[in-house]
Amino acid sequence: MAHQFSDPMPVSGIHQIDLDSHAVIEASAGTGKTYAIENLVVELLKSGRVLNLEEILVVTFTEKAAGELKDRIRQNIKNGLKQTPSDILRVSLDNFDSASIFTIHGFCNATLQEYAFENGEQFQSQLVDDRVVYEQGLYDIMRDEWPSRFGNDLLQILTLSGYPGATAGGTSSWINRVLDVAIRYQPSGSDTIVPDGGSDLPGMIRKAEKECSIYLDELERLIGAIDSSDFSKSDFPSRYATLNIHKNSMGKRLRIIETLLKLLSERAARNIELKDLVDLFSKLELTEDGFKVLNSRWKKEGPDYQDKLPLLPEIIEVLERLRALDIKKIQNTLTAVTVHDLKRHALQYKKERGLISYDDMITRVYQALAAVPSTLKKVLQKKYRYALVDEFQDTDMLQWKIFSAIFLESRTSRLFIIGDPKQSIYGFRGADVHAYYLARDEMIHTRGANYYCLNENWRSSPDLIASFNALFAGTEWFSDSNIRYLPAHYPAGQDPGKHRDDTSLVVMDCGCCTGTKAKYRSAHFIACELKRFIAEDPTVNLNDIAVLVTKWKEAETIETFLKHHSISYSLYKKEGLYQSKEVLELQLLLTAIANPNDLMARKKALVTRFFRIPVQQLYHYTVSVHEQPADSLFDRWIALADQRNWTLLFQSIIEDTGILFCLDIDDHDRALINYRTVMQNLEVEAYRNDFCIQEAIDYLNSLRQRNSYSHDSYNIQTIDLEKPGVQILTIHASKGLQFKTVFIAGGYTKKTPGEFWTYHNDTTRVFDLVKNPDAKDLYDLELASEEERLFYVALTRAQDRLYIPVFEPAGRSTNTAGITGAKLNSALNQIRREQRVTWLDITAVQGVMDPIHYSAMHHVDHIVIPDPLFPPVSDTFIDRRIHIDSFSGIKSRLHEPVNKYLEKHQFGDQDHQPPDDDEQYSISAPLQSVNDVRQELPHSKETGIMLHAILEHIDYQAAGNVSSPKDLIKDGTPSSNLFDSAIRYHLKIHADADMDSIKDQVAGIIWNTLNAPLNGSDLYLKQVDKKTHEVEFYYPTNRRPSSPVPEAAYREGFMHGFIDMIFLFQDKYFIIDWKSNYLEEGYSRDRIERNILDMHYDLQMKIYLQALLRWLRQFIPDYKYDTHFGGIYYLYLRGMEWGKSRNGIYFFRPEHEEIDDLPDA
Fold this sequence. Notes:
The protein is of the alpha/beta class. It is 45% helix and 12% strand. The strands form six sheets. A seven-stranded parallel beta sheet has the order 1-10-2-9-8-3-4, with helices on both faces. It is globular. The protein starts with 8 loop residues before the first strand and ends in a 13-residue tail after the last strand.
């Protein structure tokens, strides 16, 4: 479908775009597409080409993009008014809320509602998910239509069609395929299905069976006698074994012959059906040569069958005719028929009930525009003078027909399509890049549109841009002739100094290996490289670093290595929440609650991770006799479910089953967050709809059955995105984003072929259920092109530095190697000698981490304290009724009447308080010219945070064992680099004189802290190696007056906070809290005690003590207070001195253990 036309005209600004003609604007990655669109809108207004904003239609891809575009256009109009007063701009700003800035679905929906009378539409329709309608419709068709249509042939049809099939998740693969095709198939958009589904399926089967019988009769005549007791001794295989064929090929051929003879021998006892033929071909695993393989691989003397087996060519000819029976068409016709029926059924179902789906919105607008005559077309052509359609590469044929009808068939309207075919990666959602090609070609060749490209890359560094040009233009990266890459350049006049000036492109060479080994090797290297980043600059913003994968399965390896190296990370928009194990387990548990007398349901619940009761213990279990401690919980849950008290039910499930504390389950943090998220969502829906428990289960099940790739926000697995961490995300999710550093961690193995093929025959999109071998080249080309576009998107997310893995496939892995072991490897090798490319043999740099060594990482000896100390319970699904408190929250109300506090915070959540800081009451002060170390450091919150950061990252042994503080700040030492980064980042000090002075003081504080004997003992912090920092905790509080923390005992809830450090010394656990307070009167014990009382740190100690003791009792076997708990140190950093144990140190350890019992069930 490719047309020959000249390259687009490069433009650097909208002033170069002709506003009076149609335009195709291609915008490569980072070239400021959105900026161009917002300025085009304002220029159309300022130039008077439109009289108001309502004459411009702007369409973009997502709701988020539409919202951002509205904000930016509004701001641009304001800016334009400041520069040049204009009535058109003023009126447009006043009426901005009526601006036509939509997604395509938003535009179609607004059109249907506004012009419902003209189109014969209902004025109000209820939005529905097509998949839900299709699922219900499919079962209606199967139940009501199949028996009458297919009669006695139904069972054979189902068998031949592979119904029901099974997936790893236990669903029907046949049903999934029908639904997937039905959702994407657009007959109005020129789509077609192969086979067409219009044939008489029972008639096709009988015709094929008749032909099959004829061929088998002929084979029996040609082959001769069959020895059914030993097929190898039959005449045909015996004579074939003597042929002049290479010995290593003979075994497979004889197996083919003997399998065939077995089928022929069975004809005497029963009829041979098409299913038997399907099974035969499945067992034989024939290549494209089919049975012709029997007449190949002759030795150099040549064929000798003329004398030994003269009928061989005739036998092969009959076998090939047998193979040529169109059985694949028969196997897939039911699917095609059902897709057509489903479309018809769903249309009628939605019409009768006043329902509309997103796809219906587009279809109905198109149908109204295609009508002759079309009232809607005239109305819209009169309303809009200009249309700017963003992300046009992600549209489809039907959407293109809509815009073409409105704007290309009008003499006065102008259409601007803006997009980048190189970034078309959403084909699995229905986007069709061939719609872009058709639109571009028609607009340029038929409608005289101008063809532009934005070629100034505002995202990436000059070196990266040069690498992209070399890779994508110099290596013929894109195999699709419809795509051409035009070199981009850094914007003229822009200072590239904002980008890092070191190596921009790093190739991680994984060596000669399989794709699996390359995945592990690169993941190991990525974790080590990130650890190096953090060591060199502890203040590095991890959110600016992304690891991109092609599928979430690849992320699991990365996660494991990051956890091993204690590198925090976040999963960005991970899908499949309702297909997760946690949702299945919750559904099993709720089912057991809803059916108290169902023994099997109860047993299924007991083996989930909520209880983890071994199966062998349940053989003699009965519901009537309370044998398990969990039985009393079920009694309570049943009562709560009857009362529809969802809040207490879910709270009890989270707290009382112990799932909060089961840190040994796989990926505990993610599992817990999934539990929390699902319970939160389910609670909201249950209260909103007044569900009984069975209705709640049905609702949950409906979400589980929905397609895990439906890309709805409801199905996103969440993680704490506010916590700084490396962003792990799929390439698809990364589109439109940018990161300073990007690691590619996917593409190691080939994509698994789908249940059906999708490709294009000219402008027609084909859904090929048969997988026609004649179309394989078309399918392979489109599959390869899609992967090339995907990795173009991945690589161009980087601003400063990009890491790409490659490997040389070893042995047979050549057939399974993904793009990083194939095209990307080859392309990068072509530019490896470029000066800006660093080619790194990672097997030599860090040793080889192969799968065989993978599990060993989990056995490293380190302090057994999890982070967080207690995984957080949801502050969303219970925060309206369960109170989450903190030291900061309690402290802030100590002098406030309780009733006033409760009035202000009825459903209070202190979890969002700013973190407690030692100097939060001090005002940031400029540097003072006083020599006293305790006075020179600023008395500010930032100073405390800076000292905390250094103590969290510094090497205690190395820093504590130097001879003096001066050694810590020698140029080039790790500690000096750490001090520089922390001081510049937190105190915003850059002048050399100020920096030197501050570094002297910081070095003294750190050195003294590490060398001061704690409490006169032989314990020095420089000796501590088993420690963990910033330990987060949650634990339940209660109303008991005897609580060790009575200040928190006024209501049920949770206590939340962070402990600065926990360390293990001589088998005892200690808490440390750093205090950077400036005490004017000094740091003797009595003055520290006075400060502790003034600042209520005694309360803080009680809270920390409760958190650690609860954890010790929960997880230490044979826990004893005197044996395992050491005490709490409050270290006032400004007052600690080398060799002295009295100044700056406060030690606290109650003589007897005081701890709340866990709340009663």
